[in-house]
Write a structure and sequence with these properties.
The protein is of the alpha+beta class. It is 20% helix and 21% strand. The strands form 4 sheets. Strands 10, 13, 14, 15, 16, 17, 18 and 19 form an 8-stranded mixed β-sheet that branches. A hairpin with a 4-residue loop joins strand 11 and strand 12.
């Protein structure tokens, strides 16, 4: 076997044809072991970390960061030598990287969390018993999600800094804050190639343009995040000064002027990766499925009080609890009476496929675009398990590291525009589904309660559905059932 082995870009998800090289975790001369993470790529669905199937020494990076390459393209060369060859995947010929079985114990990249083939068998419309639940996917141990972080984002995927003037209500709208970053490593440790600097994509691009290695820059932003000022100071030889000076104290002159101040009238932004897939999916859905949207305004005061009680319950102390959890549970219960909202249209067979399970998707706006990961078998979960699953799902989505399996097989979607202070909307149905529920902000408003006008917590729910599968009666019944549980969580006992 030749010493040099070429690792080819694998297909980490169904139908993947290309991916962008985002960050190399190694450089020529580095020694790697089997399953070491060597590169982070962006597919049309998420960020994926790829492990190497051999042990050896990196001889060459064949593709640069920021380049988009097709599946099967060699991206790195690894010299296995006499010792490393024994750990390589089987007796693959030179240049045959991923595509042959990986080394024993090696992790197949990108397939974590994918449903097993044949695990679900949707049932065509017609009489018959309700299918029993399938095997749940294994979940990692839950960790406490910081209060105030985002669990679901707007269907539009647009984030703004606008804060509406409303009466404060602790913890009633879902996770808005940025994720809490891990404490930055010491400057000496940051030079290691297996440590990725904390920086936003525009800052990474600036560093690449200026030829700055982010792992050598000490971040002055909150949580150790590397800022534009840090990169520019490092490039100009002022890294030590930038390291000692807090972000707030950086001179305003180090911040580059905006395109408008520079006199630029237009800016072209390439659409690729997640945003490109989102654009294609939304256009396909909007022009292939006849959308209908209905609204209902709900007194959610009892839900707000119920959420506060759950937060003090010992079983819910280590998970995020919010009104979104109640809405998610209400959807899973209401689907039983109106299965049409949890279905797929088979255009070739001209049939509606009812799904006897709920893979609940949560639309999340991330810096890379809108994604809709889903919780498998949400209808079979307890409230505690569902709360933990939603927290895990949104945390990984925010980091851009949702496994491809979590992006596939969704059956119903919730989008929460309330986190932006928006009252409601007319969301576009996620392709392959028949309905999507939009949850608006919960505000304290005057409301007629027991023949008196009193301040109550009020929200708006809207349901968009495919009129080929869901008629007005079915859509209204489902929306009324969800609203009834939000108005009084005790109504869940009726389902």
């Amino acid at each position: 076997m030749p010493d040099a082995m070429q690792f080819k870009l694998p297909d980490v998800g169904e139908g993947l044809t290309e991916a962008e090289i985002v960050t190399w975790r190694v450089k020529p001369g580095d020694t790697v072991k089997v399953n070491d993470i060597i590169v982070e790529i962006e597919t049309a669905k998420s960020l994926v970390e790829l492990p190497v199937p051999w042990a050896g020494t990196v001889t060459e990076l064949l593709v640069g960061e920021g380049e988009t390459v097709a599946v099967g393209t060699p991206i790195i060369a690894v010299s296995t030598g006499a010792g490393g060859a024994s750990e390589a995947a089987g007796d693959a010929p030179a240049g045959d990287a991923v595509g042959s079985p990986p080394a024993e114990g090696a992790v197949e990249p990108g397939l974590e969390g994918s449903p097993a083939p044949g695990e679900r068998q949707p049932t065509l419309v017609g009489p018959g018993p309700r299918a029993t639940s399938g095997k749940r996917r294994a979940r990692k141990p839950q960790t406490a999600v910081p209060q105030g972080s985002s669990a679901a984002a707007a269907q539009t995927g647009v984030q703004t800094s606008f804060q509406p003037h409303t009466t404060p209500m602790p913890e009633v709208t879902e996770e808005e804050a940025e994720p809490v970053a891990e404490p930055p490593a010491a400057p000496a440790a940051r030079t290691e190639t297996n440590v990725r600097a904390l920086a936003k994509p525009p800052v990474r691009k600036l560093a690449k343009d200026l030829g700055v290695d982010l792992t050598t820059v000490a971040g002055s932003g909150e949580g150790g995040i590397v800022t534009r000022a840090d990169v520019e100071a490092h490039a100009g030889g002022g890294a030590a000064a930038a390291e000692a000076q807090p972000a707030e104290a950086q001179p305003a002159a180090t911040q580059p002027p905006s395109p408008m101040l520079r006199g630029e009238r237009e800016t072209r932004v390439p659409i690729k990766g997640v945003r490109k897939m989102m654009a294609q999916a939304m256009v396909s859905s909007a022009y292939s499925a006849p959308h209908v949207t209905e609204w209902v305004t709900v007194d959610a005061t009892r839900t707000v009080r119920f959420v506060e009680r759950l937060r003090s319950h010992r079983e819910f102390r280590d998970v995020k609890v919010s009104p979104l959890l109640v809405v998610a549970r209400a959807v899973c219960l209401a689907v039983r009476r109106t299965p049409e909202v949890n279905a797929t249209w088979d255009d070739g067979a001209q049939e509606m496929v009812l799904k006897h399970y709920v893979n609940l998707g949560i639309a999340a706006a991330t810096p890379r675009g809108l994604v809709v990961p889903n919780v498998k078998d949400a209808d079979q979960m307890s409230m505690r398990d569902l709360a933990g699953a939603l927290g895990e799902l949104t945390a990984t989505a925010r980091e851009g590291k949702t496994p491809p399996g979590d992006m596939q097989g969704g059956s119903f979607t919730i989008t929460n525009v309330g986190v932006f202070g928006v009252d409601g909307g007319t969301p576009i149905i996620n392709p392959g589904e028949s309905s999507i529920l939009c949850m608006g902000a919960i505000r304290k408003q005057p409301w007629v309660y027991r023949n008196q006008v009193k301040p109550r917590w009020v929200t708006q729910l809207s349901l968009s559905f495919d009129h080929r599968m869901v008629d007005g009666e079915a859509g209204s019944r489902f929306l009324a059932d969800v609203a009834g549980i939000v108005e009084d969580p005790a109504n869940a006992l009726l389902h």
